Amino acid sequence: MNSPSFYWTGLLRVASLAAAGLTLAGCASVQQPDPRDPWEGFNRGVYSFNDTVDRNFLRPISVGYTYVTPQPVRTCVHNMFNNIADVWAAANSMLQGRGLDAINTVGRFLFNTTLGVGGCIDVATANGQPRIPNDFGTTLGVWGFGQGPYLVLPFWGPSSVRDGVGLTGDFFGNTYTSVGAIENVRVRNSLYGLEIIDRRASLLDATDTVDRIALDPYSFVRDAYLQRRNAMVLGQRGQDNLPDYSDDDAPDAKSTTPASSTTVPKTVPNTTPATVPAPGANQSGTVAPAKR
Questions:
Q1: pLDDT digits 0-9 by tens, 242-271
Q2: Where do the H-state alpha helices sit in the chain?
Q3: Of 149, 155, 186, 207, which one has the greatest count of Cβ atoms within 10 A?
Q4: Which of helix, strand or coil describes residue 273?
Q5: Which long-range contacts link 3-6 to residues 24+ away (Cβ below 8 Å)?
Q6: What is the pLDDT of residue 17?
Q7: b/e string for 192-206 if b means 16 or more Cβ within 10 A?
Q8: Within its chain, how far is the Cα of 234 from the centroid?
């Protein structure tokens, strides 16, 4: 009997939180923003909102998922979503004129789908053929479109003007090549939910590391995201996960040095390396289905 009241109360709280976060974002200002991030005041407000949603909703669900689901099952689910994503990635490689990447990605998909039992086992990577992540935002970059200002999207996370436009192409592409192609609404939405939880669970270690060592997590995530996106446009091969920046012999950075709103952790270089860490999610905040 109390369920309708509880529903509307919860909805009102979420709406109030969103309004407060976006209001804070609009009022915030930075005197000397990074040239790549002229909207830093707004972005930090949205980042804070996403982080609140993540810590109170997505992260607890993802932690529970890793607790109750055996590691082999989680690995199988993750591999299957990656395998499906390879179809759209191959299409983007072809659009970029990277024929060899497209052929290798199609080969990965066929190899994993057959010998890997529908993609449950990533036999391609085990045989020396790693994934080549790709999406329409990268395609636009290869075509010559500038990245534009850095942009943090509500509920999505790190992006840019170019990548934000690219999300439209990813949406339509994945509608025909991924989970979106499933006609059964309940099954499709359930798989979307599982994919979100899977992506967030795969980033738990990375985001915990960022929280522990980064003096300014916002700057850390921004720099990692922009570096990785630049590397993808240039065709450099990076890693899907953040490298281990931690120093087990050193004290916690946050316990010894006060955080600064404009300080970039020393562990993040200012130049683009050949191997670039992946962004935390959308990844200080919420995680939506990964870009295809």
A1: 444 444 444 444 444 444 334 444 344 444
A2: 3-27, 40-53, 59-68, 71-95, 99-114, 123-126, 136-142, 161-177, 185-202, 204-213, 217-234, 253-256
A3: 207
A4: coil
A5: none
A6: 54
A7: beebbbbbbbbbeeb
A8: 19
Q: What is the pLDDT of residues 210-225, one digit of tens each?
A: 999 999 999 999 999 9
Question: In Å, how far are 115, 174, 225 from 236, measured between CA atoms?
Answer: 28, 24, 14
Q: Alpha carbon 51 to chain centroid distance?
A: 13
Contact 159, 153 (CB under 8 A): yes
Angstrom distance (rounded) from CA 200 to CA 74: 12
The Cα 123–Cα 117 span in angstroms is 10
Residue 238: Cβ-neighbour burial (10 angstroms; 0-12, 13-18, 19+): buried
**Residue 282 near residue 288 (C-beta atoms within 8 A):** yes
The residues that bridge with 153 in the sheet, in sequence order, are: 157
pTM of the model: 0.72
Q: If we measure between CA atoms, which residue out of 164, 181, 6 comes closest to residue 84?
A: 181
Residues 6+ apart with CB under 8 A from 12: none
Residues 139 and 232: their CA atoms lie apart, in Å, by 9
The answer to whether 204 touches 258, Cβ cutoff 8 Å, is: no
CA distance 133 to 92: 10
Quote the CA–CA distance of 172 and 17 in Å, as a whole number: 30
> Is the distance from CB of 221 to CB of 210 less than 8 angstroms?
yes
Buried b (16+ CB within 10 A) or exposed e, 241-256: ebbebeeeeeeebeee
